[in-house]
Write a structure and sequence with these properties.
about 230 residues; alpha+beta; 6-stranded antiparallel sheet; 6 helices; about 40% helix; about 30% strand; disordered C terminus
């Protein structure tokens, strides 16, 4: 089932500014925070040196640069989330899609590699692997898509045949070609499957409930009138 949505509704479901969930995602791991903090410290030192070298009449410029560099660790996650949001908001048309889980399986994926030296002094490459969930969903029209996300404990609840809902984005008004999809919501378990949380979850679930009620009313057979008695 695919139901087109208005541009206003899409803008409500896909925020322009980072939400709390998106900020937590782009905040990253402790190592990511330390990297941003190091950039802030180095940037602050560079700006301080620049301020010393520049004439006093231009000291306001290094002051502004110092604020930007000093708070890089704080504002960079907001900027990163905004960039991810713009990636999906660039599509003009979108719709609410509902289908089924076709397949679900777990794989070990290489997410990075590090060079290190073993006991014999030889340079070796160590692969960093991560268990990931691959989810394939589709509908009766033949449309299918897959997403792959880091494995979580509650993913074990998902089964083939479960209902699946998401937003689909396109540059075509009739949505005949899907260019991008959002997070997937599994209503049977009230579970979200996503790598990056694109949609406003509460707003999406409200839209889902409203559209499902409308769809059920349209499919409900008309009531027969009571027979006329003499």
């Amino acid at each position: 089932m695919l139901i087109p949505l208005t541009q206003e509704k899409l803008e409500e479901l896909i925020p322009r500014i980072a939400t709390a969930d998106q900020y937590r995602y782009t905040w990253g791991k402790p190592s990511d925070f330390l990297r941003r903090l190091l950039i802030s410290v180095v940037g602050g030192i560079c700006v301080f040196i620049l301020r010393i070298l520049m004439p006093e009449s231009l000291h306001s410029l290094p002051y502004l640069l110092g604020i930007v560099a000093g708070f890089y660790w704080l504002w960079n996650p907001v900027y990163s989330a905004g960039q991810r949001n713009r990636e999906i908001r660039r599509y003009t048309y979108g719709g609410f899609w509902r289908g089924r889980v076709l397949d679900v399986f777990i794989t070990d994926e290489v997410v990075g590699a590090e060079e290190t030296v073993n006991k014999r002094g030889e340079l070796v490459i160590v692969e960093n692997r991560e268990r990931r969930l691959t989810l394939e969903v589709g509908d009766k029209t033949g449309f299918t898509t897959q997403i792959q996300v880091p494995l979580r404990r509650d993913h074990r609840l998902i089964r083939s045949g479960d209902f699946a809902e998401m937003l689909v984005l396109s540059n075509r008004p009739d949505l005949s070609r899907i260019n991008m999809v959002s997070d997937i919501y599994i209503p049977d378990h009230k579970l979200w499957v996503s790598d990056y949380p694109y949609v406003q979850k509460n707003s999406f679930m409200e839209v889902s409930k409203k559209l499902m009620r409308q769809h059920q009313r349209r499919r409900r057979p008309p009531r027969r009138s009571d027979p006329v008695r003499d």
